[in-house]
Specification:
CATH superfamily of the largest domain: 2-enoyl-CoA Hydratase, Chain A, domain 1
CATH topology of the largest domain: 2-enoyl-CoA Hydratase, Chain A, domain 1
Order of helices and strands: EEHEHEEHEEHHEHEHHHH
Number of helices: 10
Largest sheet: 6 strands, mixed
Strand content: 5-15%
Number of domains: 2
CATH class of the largest domain: Alpha Beta
Helix content: 40-55%
Structural class: alpha/beta
Length: 272
């Protein structure tokens, strides 16, 4: 796919997906939705990529649905905007993940959000589906849906309580109030609050450390355990972990990880 409103760059085994409508604070459109899914799928399937960073170009992360799209909905109804061909990132891992944005959970590589500006509506959804979230101070967050007579969008009523707890999520979901990244950090929604001029360097350093110290298969299997376990009981979780221990102990990277630990050096992973 030719990208027009999303940029995909790969460097040092890290793919960066940048929402690229800076003049509109990266407001969401169907075209951006299609390109974002395509970029995620491409990065996830690239053997040279170990992790994915999602950020926004300019002053915004994603300001939610574009007002022009909302005007079209007002005049013609939902689903009236131009249709785009959609791919399915992370397909085949679990049917529970085969839905818009839930596809993040089927990816084989971790996703880290670098939140550089306002994250509203769909922008907050994207942030919540990331595994780890970095943000700069003073960023405005909001669920926003209540102000537009919409329901909580794209599973936000499911994922937000999982991230910050039911009571705190209820406060944000039922009021659609604006809150800043400092509060988001206190709520546990933001993992790391960093100065604006250090956002991408700090995010990349975190990701680089992750992919250096943790094997590719361990990252993949642990992500899938985390999100599959949200849908199964503890006994099933334990049984799956026991099966994986037996299987993964046969991998080259088990021996390499152990040797690197004993020899006090960085491992040289061979797994994908």
């Amino acid at each position: 796919m030719e990208y027009k409103v999303v940029e995909l760059e790969t460097r040092d085994q890290i793919a960066t997906i940048m929402l690229n409508r800076p003049d509109r604070l990266n407001a969401w459109t169907m075209k951006m939705h299609a390109e974002y899914r395509s970029a995620l799928k491409a990065a996830d399937e690239d053997a040279n990529v170990r992790a994915i960073i999602v950020t926004g170009n300019g002053k915004g992360f994603c300001a939610g649905a574009d007002s022009l799209v909302l005007e079209a909905v007002k005049k013609k109804g939902y689903g009236s905007s131009e249709k785009e061909e959609l791919v399915w990132p992370g397909a085949g891992i679990s049917e529970d993940f085969r839905a818009s944005f839930a596809y993040h959970y089927g990816l084989s590589k971790p996703v880290v959000a670098a939140i550089n500006g306002p994250a509203a509506g769909v922008g907050l959804v994207i942030a919540c589906y990331a595994d780890i979230r970095f943000s700069v101070p003073g960023v405005k967050f909001t669920t926003s849906h209540g102000r537009l007579n919409f329901p909580a969008e794209y599973g936000l009523s499911w994922v937000l309580p999982k991230v910050i707890g039911l009571g705190r999520a209820n406060d944000l979901l039922l009021t659609s109030r604006i809150f800043l990244s400092e509060e988001a950090y206190e709520l546990g929604l933001v993992n790391y609050l960093v100065p604006k001029d250090e956002l991408m360097n700090r995010t990349r350093a975190y990701v680089q450390h992750m992919i250096t110290t943790v094997s590719p298969r361990s990252l993949q299997e642990t992500r899938h355990q985390i999100y599959k376990d949200l849908h199964r009981n503890i006994a099933s979780s334990v049984e799956e972990s026991e099966r994986l221990i037996v299987d993964m102990s046969k991998d080259h990277d088990f021996k390499e990880g152990l040797d690197a630990y004993l020899e006090k050096r960085n491992p040289e992973w061979k797994g994908k």
